[in-house]
Amino acid sequence: MGLNSTPSSGRVHIGFFGKRNVGKSSVVNAVTGQDLAVVSEVKGTTTDLVQKAMELLPVGPVVVIDTPGIDDTGELGERRIRKTRQALNKVDVAVLVVEAGAAVSMEEKQLMDVFREKGIPFLMAINKMDLYQENQSGSLEAAGKAASFGAGGDFIDVSAKTGYHIQELKERIASLAARQEPKGRIVGDLLRPMDFVVLVTPIDAAAPKGRLILPQQQAIRDILESGAVSIVVKEGELKETLRQLGKKPALVITDSQVFAKAHKDTPADILLTSFSILFARYKGDLKAAVQGAAAIETLKDGDKVLISEGCTHHRQCGDIGSVKIPAWLEGYTEKKVEIKLTSGTEFPEDLSGYKLAIHCGGCMLNGREMKYRVESAKGQGVPITNYGIAIAYMQGILRRSLEAFPDILAELPPIQGGDC
To answer: What is the spatial distance between Cα 420 and Cα 409, in angstroms, rounded to a whole number?
Structure first.
């Protein structure tokens, strides 16, 4: 898949970490062959995450992330370190840049512990080996320090300045990336060749002009790769399309905003689900999201509900996250709950006080970050669901929307509030 055909959420995320002034940004620039990050002799030049989607051979499509120094100081430094910690929630492969000949710091040891705790494969790049070229034992000394870091750590001596071992570093990164678990399918595993799939895609004020939104694009691509046939319609065309098809579709996939109409217009013997539910299975935890929806029943006046989106966009009139879901919540529960909206990287680390979290499908987040958000909520005892599941629950069609996933449906307890 080429540079322009692979969304950032589908790329391997490679994070470069380290203390200030170890040459981290110089290593990033040497690996990418581009000046992505500003470098200087002044500590703390990288003040925020520098992130770029690119093609990195021999890895392929990647997102490269250069992070602020983990030993930054002061109030501003703490903010920068917080950004670095956020990057840890989405990197698939980590490169820890350390300085040749320097003592191993507490921050570096702690960072490696975090890599291991989070299951992030990592590599130590021991930089500035050019400073030790005249000392033949320099490389061995650095390697000895790396080996002392403990089991599970791989290392390589490099010089960003001279290019020493930079190609080998890229190959090591590619090897680590290749060990990642293969990704599942959005919908392709539910289909057979020449199956018909009808996709209901509203074209409203929130739709991007001239194109479909990312989950719709990705679902169509996955359908095509399965040898199946995708038929894309607006919500007002679904009923007549199904009548004229002449062949029963294997599945109808709808935008969550028009779930109720799609349910009404789709005969009961045709499977129906939503893009958001498919993405809960693809990137998150469908079972947890289904279980989390039951918390809607327990909401009381004044309870705090987090509504979180993985992307940032200009909110239109009738926006699903800021307008429609809060309105549906109030209408279903007849309670006045307090809504907190977040977007992009703003997902709170501390979820205490929230009675429920409702997340978007996460099409703009990579799988590791989406799973982190789900696990963070579960670990803090906060029920978490997503847009499509919450909407299906409140509209009484959750069981129907899960019929394509019998393993999940079999574990679903009786649902309060009725289910058609």
So the answer is: 14
